[in-house]
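W.,

You were right to be curious about this one. When I first looked at the sequence I had no strong expectations either way, so I just let the prediction run and decided to look at it fresh. Below is the sequence, 322 residues in total, followed by the output.
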Amino acid sequence: MTGGVRSLSVAIALFVVFAAARGMPAEPGKKITLAYSAVSMTWLPVKAAVDKGFFREEGLEPQLIQMRGNVATAALATGDLDFSLNISPVLNGAIQGLGLKLIAGLNTRPLFSLVVRPELKTPADLKGKIFAVSSFGNTQAILTEKHLQHLGLKKGEYQLLALGATGARAAAMEKNVVQGSLMPPPANVIMENQGYRLLGNTADIVVHPIAGLGTQEGKLRSQTDMIKRALRAALRGLVFVRNNRSETVRLIMAMNQIDEKTAARIYDVSKNGFSPDGLLTDDDLSIEWGFIQQETKKTAVPVSIAHDMTLLREVQKELGLK
């Protein structure tokens, strides 16, 4: 062996040792794909795991892909997609018999606030008012009614008006066509900055997960190691978001291109929505599952077919979370 080759071999060996000591993969990471339907605070723990290098330290190279829910369902079923970050496409695939499984939850409670016009100061002021929903009968509308009823209103004491996306609902509030709407971050806090009021966070009222990790059950058997590494990275991101306020605020600033004060307020009103440990139960999924059952007319199918927390529990033990 020549001196040059020997030196190169020693350098490579030292890099491998150094990488292992730092918890870094010695070789390029395995590419994995994760789909999301829209930029959203609900999957912030995965964004944190990407930015902080938790996936890289697990030997994975994550690729985040924006994808409509029905496309994600099909791609998961065929194995062309590794994970969905939105829960609904996974539940839809599960009830259709496509073998899709939720394997972790990122948030167990919805990250909505009830945003109302400035002149409405108390729950009593909400009687007789009109509230914008994205569409009738969907999850956001169901949660709007639960929120209003939690504040003491009864059916018949308020009206709902279907107006579509967040921007359209905000515009209707500005024109006083409607007087309130359930809004996600960052819109809820941005509107608060403009003088609107927040009358409670839905996370304090109802359990309803929106984001998590879902995959195809075939991958749970054939790529168990990859699944566990992805779960480990995502759980580390979840713990990071819940326990590192200042760094997470900076992440929210960059993700939404907003100032620090607004990002800090978003963190504070959203934190309770994030799961403490990633676990999901039948009860957690009951609202969304009931909605999907009605849509598909498959009311006899139990939600238990749609989730498998076995590998999550193993990873929790490895990370000392249980």
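Here's what jumped out at me. The first helix runs from residue 3 to 21. And, maybe more interesting for your project: Strands lie at 30-36, 60-66, 83-86, 100-105, 113-116, 130-133, 159-162, 180-183, 197-201, 211-216.

Coffee later to discuss?

I.
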